[in-house]
Write a structure and sequence with these properties.
This protein is mainly α and 338 residues long. It is built from 14 helices and no strands. The chain starts with 7 loop residues before the first helix and ends with a helix.
Amino acid sequence: MPNIVANPAFMIYGIAGLAAVSMLLLGFGIYAAVTAPQARLKRRISTVVGDPSPAMIIPGTGRKDQNSGAKRKKQIQERLKHAEESRQKRRGSRIREQLVFAGLKISPQQFIVYALLGGAIFTGVAFIFGLPPILLPAVALIGFLGIPRFVINFLIKRRMKKFIAFFPDAIDIIVRGVRSGLTVGECLNIIGQESPDPVGPEFRLVIEAIKLGQPMADALQRMSDRLPSPEFRYFTIVLGTQQTTGGNLAETLAKLSDVLRQRKKMRDKVQAMSSEAKASAGIIGSLPLFVMAALSFLAPEYVGLLFTTSTGNFMLAICVVVMGCGVLVMRKMINFDM
């Protein structure tokens, strides 16, 4: 076998190849270093400004008539309907929309990868612990779809609960600022600096959009697309209508703040009144699991038939389906939307 190291031609080709690979890696590094800030800037602008959409134009909103309260209410109702229709037309993928609602900074592709990985781990753990094969498809379905959906819905509800809790205080800041002579933009800037998450960061995005040249109505509408809150959607429409048609903005927003606080009190009262039904549903739903766990220790040969025979596996699968349907029915009965 010839000595490859001593071959000058091979050494030249090797050095040339290493140099080419090094130059290629260096080029990729320089390209990434140059384009990374631009990519981050584009993502930031996309988050702040969003896709361009036509402004909402309602016939008759250009005329200022401070004594036409009924006309102003009708215009607000028309704008609410128009805003909801525009939101339905502009909405992207369902996963992307839910990630925005939850305040997560990941892409839908990353969320799908995490869901698949979590589902595979959940199914593998169930298989290792000796779960019957007939139940593995149900476990895989829960791991791939049920748990990720539960997590994303939990994050959305928690974020919206925090937003609704702090939003009336933000409206009060605007009311006091307008009454003291500040502009609405300055009040929004104060909210963005002083309010806690998620109110503060969302209003900071509105301020950034206004600084980039976007109208305030469009920036607030973009924020309404990121927050599925009827309260904030109504605030956006009221603010845009008051700036267009005139009127006492401070008084209107003060009434809106009071309404939001009354709604929160009513929601807490409903939750307190339904807590007994929720506790009963939890006890009824968990009782079969506790009974099975107790019997598995007291009489394992009696419960083992459900896992060792095909008839037992079939009956266990039917029980899981029936119990799942019962839990969903009880959850639907004790949940109240306000």
